[in-house]
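In the design runs reported in the main text, the only information available to the sequence generator was the tokenized backbone. The following block is the verbatim input for one such run; it is reproduced so that readers can re-run the procedure and compare outputs position by position.
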């Protein structure tokens, strides 16, 4: 598919799961490809490459862990985020919460939450269940709104996602691909 030059907005795409066969990891890779095809400059982040401890103020006082410093630099250089989130017992996973907890802290002369404040975010979810992770999207929306982020009003929840990807991790349904593409295009052009 040829790239359409729509925008040169820089977007960070990542998943709230690090499991190798994660449905949300597959969805995030599809979304990153869609955004690139639409002309966005995409930075894809695999959080499994940046293991960090559970947030702890004592650790923070000793100095930020190296991977937290690296993640801060990545988040700082992006104005927009696309996040795919699994649903754990009706909520987004602790991986996302932990990353946000570390990155929302004011560091040195920064104001708390400044890495997120006024930045745009699109939330998507994939789940083997019939609701596609909608409860995780809602709870993650609350977290991002608390950080004064601009949460895109549309989201996408891929229900029965365990049947929606081929062996290579690509979306099988052209209809669902087009719906994601429509939402991502609107997000990019916002």
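Verbatim output:
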């Amino acid at each position: 598919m040829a790239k359409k030059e729509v925008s040169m907005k820089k977007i960070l795409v990542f998943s709230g799961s690090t499991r190798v066969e994660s449905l949300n990891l597959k969805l995030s890779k599809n979304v990153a490809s869609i955004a690139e095809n639409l002309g966005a400059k995409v930075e894809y982040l695999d959080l499994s490459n940046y293991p960090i401890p559970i947030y702890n103020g004592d650790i923070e006082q000793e100095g930020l862990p190296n991977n937290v410093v690296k993640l801060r630099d990545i988040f700082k250089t992006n104005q927009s985020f696309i996040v795919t989130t699994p649903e754990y017992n009706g909520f987004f996973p602790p991986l996302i919460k932990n990353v946000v907890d570390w990155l929302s802290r004011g560091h040195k002369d920064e104001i708390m939450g400044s890495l997120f404040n006024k930045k745009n975010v699109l939330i998507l979810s994939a789940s083997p269940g019939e609701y596609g992770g909608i409860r995780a999207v809602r709870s993650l929306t609350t977290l991002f709104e608390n950080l004064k982020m601009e949460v895109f009003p549309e989201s996408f929840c891929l229900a029965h996602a365990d049947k929606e990807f081929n062996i290579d991790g690509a979306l099988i349904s052209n209809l669902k691909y087009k719906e994601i593409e429509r939402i991502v295009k609107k997000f990019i052009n916002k």
